[in-house]
Write a structure and sequence with these properties.
Elements (H helix, E strand, L loop, with lengths): L10 H10 L18 E6 L13 E5 L6 E2 L4 E5 L8 E4 L3 E2 L4 E5 L15 E2 L9 E6 L10 E2 L7 E7 L4 E2 L15 E4 L8 H4 E4 L35 E2 L2 H5 L11 E12 L6 E5 L17 E5 L12 E11 L2 E5 L6 E3 L11 E3 L5 H5 L5 E4 L3 E5 L3 H4 L2 E5 L7 H4 L5 H13 E4 L31 E3 L3 E6 L2 E5 L15 E3 L14 E11 L11 E4 L5 E6 L9 H17 L4 E8 L10 H14 L4 E3 L13 E8 L3 E9 L10 E10 L19 E7 L21 H22 L4 E6 L7 H8 L3 E2 H5 L6 E3 L2 E3 L2 E5 L1 H4 L2 E6 L36 E5 L13 H4 L11 H21 L1
Parallel strand pairs: 7-8, 10-12, 15-16, 18-20, 22-23, 26-29, 31-34, 39-40
Antiparallel strand pairs: 1-2, 1-13, 2-7, 3-6, 4-5, 4-9, 9-11, 13-14, 16-17, 16-19, 17-18, 19-20, 19-21, 23-28, 24-25, 25-26, 27-30, 28-29, 31-46, 32-33, 34-36, 35-36, 37-38, 38-39, 40-44, 41-44, 42-43, 45-46
Helix pairs in contact: 8-9, 10-11
Length: 901
Amino acid sequence: MHRSVGRTLLCATAAAALVAAPLVSVSTATANPQGSGLVIAEAYLKGGSANQPFTNKFVELGNPTDSPVSVDGWSVQYRAATGTGAPSVGKLAGSVPAHGTYLVQMGSNGTNGEALPEPDAVTGLNPSGSTGTLVLADQATALTLPAGAVTTGIPGVVDLLGYGTSNTFETAVAPTGTANAVPDALTRQGTTDTDSNAADFRVTTTVTPENAVGETTQPTDPTDPTDPTDPGDGGTTPAERVTIAQLQGTGDASPYAGKTVTTDGVVTAVYATGGFNGYTVQTAGTGGALDLGKHTASDAVFVYSSATVGSVAIGDAVRLTGTVSEFNGLTELTVPTASGLTKLPAAGVVQPVPATLTFPRTDAQRESLESMLVAPQGDYTVADNYTTNQYGEVVLASGKQRLLQPTEVARPGSAEAAAVTADNAARKVVLDDGASTNFLSAANQSIPVSWLTQGPVTVGAAATFREPVVLDYRNDSWKFQPTSPITGATPAADLPASFSDVRTAAPENVGGDIRLAGFNVLNYFPTTGDQLTGCTYYTDRDGDPVTVRGGCDARGAANADDLARQQVKIVKAINGLGADVVSLEEIENSARFGQDRDAAVATLVAALNAATGKDTWAYAKSPSKLPSSEDVIRLALIYKKDRVQPVGSSTILTDSTAFTNARQPLAQAFAPVVAKPGKGKGAQKPSAKDTFLVIANHFKSKGSGEGVDADQGDGQGASNQSRVEQAKALVTFSTAMQRQARTDKVFMLGDFNAYSEEDPVVALEDAGYTDLGPTQDASEWSYVFSGLSGSLDHVFASPAALETVTGVDIWNINSVESVGLEYSRYDYNVTDLYQDDVYRASDHDPVVVGIDLPGVGTPGGGNPGHGGDPGHGGNPGHGGPVADALAALAALLAWLRGLFG
């Protein structure tokens, strides 16, 4: 059925319009009910799957205006549903006719269906058929997209379609169809854009591609209607006999692509379920200890064949006839019918053996092993587990070290940073599960998720291979595939790899009289979504709200049950720190909800005290002078009442414009609570020499910025200039607060949203502050993003403060754990990964610092809770009866010396 956008165009009409009318362009996305700009008119996302009418996926653009619109320098971009990084880009050129269409060809799931009409642009994008984000952009570089409902005027965005469970969308996501084998497309209703994907798009069973000249089918060449040499046209040209190595060739693409061949091999892996619909075959007798200097062509190939995958088993000798193709970088042999498979006698066939080698550092060497059976040698370390709970993937790094953020260890844009990037690429490989299953989709939520069901998979853990795997290339990554699909129902003993347990029950002993820590509490909001109006939610597999998605100022739990799951993790983690002063980031600013500004921090302190069983914690109360405008999240400082005491009131930086797009720093001076010597009770008055200053921070994030704050492409992300100005303003604020508190010992803690070699950190170091993490705990990092480890969370010490530092530890309990363990991912899969423990209480790891103050013996007057209090203990090396007794004796001797001269 013809639709209203361009379906009545004739070729001549389109051509005339291109000549007669001037080309115009549009810019950023806005709701456009008048139909005055380009839109995404249709998205067909299942091309090539069984029963599909067309081989390739496509996006069709529509122009409802009276003039053609140029798309030179434009692009269509795609980002996976849960992605937060840069989308993939498919470039456009030419123009969209007035009241016409423009056809963008994309990737394919297979070989089923007819060719599209001649596309106006061909891209390598290969969107998911069920969930993702598509964007029409007026630029050819990757966009920076927010999560949640997009607002109008995002630079570069002309139109955006979020579908399925995408995290980026206009108002509400568009629906999606059913399985890939059911033909359908997402089609815009009419020609207008109301800025609601759910309202603008419908799933239609009629797929109607149309290009700029009005063609709706692939044109037939009248001079060669039945050329028998054309592949796939039913001709009778005999297939060429080749070895698998000949089929693969020595380059990154097969020299036989597009040709029909016959080859022999032995089945080494079978993927009859899980979406791969195929198997791998390898030349008999190959593998073993290979010399990659001489081994230049792979002896194995992936066979895409839903028609025959159920007929083969590992170890079968087979002869195959099919068509060679390159599918998103993976060489495939497509065997479309059962007649293309012949079982060969097993007698005399030498089974291939796994190649025994370390992971190759170059693509050329990996290509020579593509689809071959391998037994990985050497060390492998878990580098990322962000997609493990969704796709059953675990990113590994060859060697014993994680993959690092280049700007964590080298200056942005430097040769050293480039070397880190190259090393990351050389060491990265993904351990997959032999399937394309999305364990969070409605169709697969009843399948237990791979790897995580059998136990924790923690970044930094060692991966040990005990069974061979297949090396292949999918989704732009080299991957180790098991020889058959696995799920969470696969016994742990049958998995091809296992992971070491690197979890720690408590931070390392950092020593000192007093401990400080920073903790990002992951949008801790006692004001839950159900207490407000307008909130939208992320929902579990039963449709129950779990956490706020947008539509209101709340950012945390959807209701009391969800808050309880979040709170118990945060409480156990903070009490497990053994810290006396803790800086909190991402806690609710309760003033935004008409409550006392401190209501949220008071709620958390009450929960912490309930867990310790006594009145352990208090918080630094908000000052009377507040910023004129504040974020919905804020900073807070909490402390143990019998360990430290506030000196004066807290202060928030209110006189700087640097923090208009971030959270204003919060300062509070503290001094130890030291018992008076002798028989008298009470505490000594705080000594100026023991007073120290703590400043909590949360700089602007890297996710957005324009003008001078635009991403410069040097690895520092967006808004770097803002963070530099915030660092400078913090230095000025620190100086003023030191004068006010009469101390030169200052610790600046928090989430600075800058890695350790980036400009904001350098600005603080140039001002005389020391970043304690890299200097004293250089083997650990506080954050993992896109598989790269680094520290966004820091503790900066002034020179005088540095002299008091006894130790530093980054307690890896959050960033290294799967996101599936968070309170907000509860009941998304049949495997409930949530546990009421400290792991994945947040996405940032806490940093703990021990300090010794010159006039302090035993803070708290020998408080029996110092060694065993659940709020300060749990760490066998910190305090304890012996240490406390020695400290008390030292204090007594010091008092006696003062008394008797």
